Amino acid sequence: LVTKARVSETNTWYAQGGIAGAVGEADSVELHVADTLEVGQGLCEPDAVRAIVGEAPAALAKLAERGVAFDLGEKGVFALAREGGHSLPRVLHAGDATGAEIQNKLARALHELGAAQVFEERFLVDVLTAGDRCVGALVLDPRAKELEVFWADAIILATGGSGQLYRVTTNPGIATGDGVAAAWRAGAAIADLEFVQFHPTALDAASARPRPLMTEALRGEGAYLLDAEGRRFMLSAHEAGELAPRDVVTREIQRVMQRQGVTHVWLDARHLGEERLRKRFPQVWHLAHEAGFDLSRDLVPVAPAAHYAVGGIVIDADGRTSVPGLYASGECSCSGLHGANRLASNSLLEGLVTSRRISRVLGLDEVPPPPARIVSPDDVTSAVVDLERALGTLQAVMTDFVGVARSGGSLEEAAGIVDEMSLILGATFSRPFELELQNLATLAVLLTHAAWLRTETRGVHARGDFPTRDDERWRVHTVWKRGEDPAEVPVGRLGR
Question: What is the pTM assigned to this prediction?
């Protein structure tokens, strides 16, 4: 196991709301499938949805068996919360720090079992190929200033998203799209990068990076969204009100902010009471308190922030990419589960189930960890680039022109800038933050051109010049491979 930072430092750790699964008496796999397909707006892969959602109950039971302490109700069964897009409560949670609970228990098991060698604080430079097959990974040890080659019959990328493409994000600083960029360079198919989910309710605290989430589960408990005049604006925007799918809530918040000339709307949880809020949402209570807000007494300012990369490396139901020997799981992948808009709390589920399926395919319990061969890096000279300024420019362009609201004009302007910035891809870099910038520039170019290509509004991709969904033309995945023109793959064919 090779990790960019420490084992504990992941996007998973930040997941507050929970993990979805049809484990309630009134629920069923079929209903969970239906909700996922509905929110995905015609772009989900039905086979992938059924495979992942269908395995959820068994996978969640295994997590609980491994010691993950999901909250229980009065009868000793899982306490379930409801979030946006779900037709009934089905989200398992551990307070409001579900991701941290899962992360911590699995990391503890990893160390206690001692079944794998762990290499922390290593940077993935590239996936290595021979012919058309993946044969290993080139990894940088920044402290030793050495390159390591990990030869392997299979490489599994679980490298998370690319939230650092945007100025305002809920993602930690390590989320720079390294795995997706490396897979792209290795010739793997990449799909649906234009679909970037913005979480509607990040705390509007300019100094905080990443932006703290005011979890969707707050609205599931009954919290309201108010505009500058104190009105619950979501009631007239969608029949589900504050529990509408995330793309709907995010765009409505954006419209309200633009119309009223403000930088945030208000989250109102005062009527839930201090005792209930402290008990159910201790982490959110603490985050709000640190920012100077009392959830039981104050309105809390919230605004959308870049949250989740829906697209990524194309995989089949067992995590295989288009490059033999290369697998992917979680946010860096594109299984087709999420379609055009991820259903809340399906992300932890996807990573959990896909990883289980990869493990079964590869028989990982029987394979010893591959040895590492240390090689000395060539003498390299970094290009002269003002890295901080370049990153700031990239984030500003993506936020202003390729964010929640897009248009042909904004995308054309963004393309001109990011294409020019892509010149740094030809530079020779040797330090992690330089390599991160190259990876972000790679994804910025691909994402911008993918957004320009899709001339419709669907899910989290909103084009002001093409404001309607166009199933006749665009019920397809946009798939990109290095050195090839973009392909349009019909729904039902992704990963095949």
Answer: 0.90
